[in-house]
Amino acid sequence: MTEATIIDGNRFSAGLRDRIASEVHALRETRHITPGLAVVLVGEDPASQVYVRTKHKRTVEVGMESFVHTLPVDTPEDELLTLIAGLNKDPAVHGILVQLPLPRQIDAQKVIEAIDPAKDVDGFHPVNVGRLASGGEALIPCTPFGSLLLLRDHLGDLSGLDAVVVGRSNIVGKPMAQLLIRESCTVTVAHSRTRDLPDVVRRADIVIAAVGKPGMIRGDWLKPGCTVIDVGINRVANPDGTSRLVGDVAFDEAVKVAGAITPVPGGVGPMTIACLLRNTLVACARQHRIALDKSL
Ligand code: GUN
Fold it and tell me: Average pLDDT in the 125-142 region?
């Protein structure tokens, strides 16, 4: 039996980062503008620390300025809002990302709404959410946008395909559904209350798994030949006490049924950071009213 094509997010994201680096180089040479990304981390969550370090490294690699602000876990909400107000005004900062989750004393929605929508490279501000839903110049959430780039690269035109998005979060599920509607897919959003989830998933030409439950989506839930995008990044324990990362899809089963599948790690993960850099470049260009290469 033929196994699914493995969709290589490392390869695709490296190509995208190269194209971004070329555009950044051109901006610096011809306009003397360096795109700048500010990342704010509150507290010491180890997974968040790893993400922020990786974002800093990739930002510098493409020739952008990286401003990392690390605040203690007990930072009052007011202090974070004051920092954001300063970043909104700072002309060297074109993109702002506040790493989630935030400590309990801070209202995440209030923080998201404090970011200037033009600098909201996460695409979480209600202005960007609304523009994605209704048309207009949105900044698009990075993980769904990266997933869409992989789908387009593998399948070409998506119009008319049945897509099932499993998960309805603001970060992935909901914006993913909007993007797939924009691509003229027939979109179903399934979630923890969905009845007969395996039957719903079995209808799909495209499955987006974004539930945060290791291996939840089984091989026999899939339509043969479908394309699977696994957004899950779950750390699970090995019998010998070490740990490994797995997705939301039971990969060893799914690879025997699907036509194509993203691995974890090495699928959607690297696309998220590449799309963050892309959004920073797009935000910078819009702030300076400069047209960018359409392939970005
Ligand atoms: N934490 C996990 N994913 C994300 C993301 O896409 N953006 C931010 N800001 N925090 C996250």
Answer: 97
Question: 133 CB contacts (<8 Å, ≥6 apart)?
Answer: 178
Catalytic residue (one of 45, 78, 89, 99): 99
Q: Are 249 and 212 within 8 A, CB to CB?
A: no
What is 142-268's CATH topology?
A: Rossmann fold (3.40.50)
Q: Does domain 31-116 have CATH number 3.40.50.10860?
A: yes
Strands 243-246, 234-237: pairing kind: antiparallel
Cα–Cα distance between 250 and 273 in angstroms, integer?
Answer: 24
Ligand 1 touching residue 143 (CB < 6 A): yes
Give the dihedral of Cα atoms 280, 18, 156, 124; nearest 10 deg.
-20
89 noted as active-site residue = no
pTM: 0.97
pLDDT (0 to 100) of residue 151: 98
- Tell me which residue of 202, 205, 213, 125 sits closest to 170, measured CA to CA: 125
Residue 65 has pLDDT above 90, yes or no: yes
**Is the distance from CB of 78 to CB of 48 less than 8 angstroms?**
no
**Rounded Cα–Cα distance for residues 53 and 34 (Å):** 20
Number of helices and strands (H, E) in the chain?
A: 10, 11
Give Rg (Cα) of the chain.
19
Annotation marks residue 223 as catalytic: no
Residues 232-251: tens digit of each pLDDT = 999 999 999 999 999 999 99
Average pLDDT value over all residues in the chain: 97
Domain with CATH 3.40.50.10860 in the chain: 31-116
Residue 97 Cβ inside 6 Å of ligand 1? The answer reads: yes
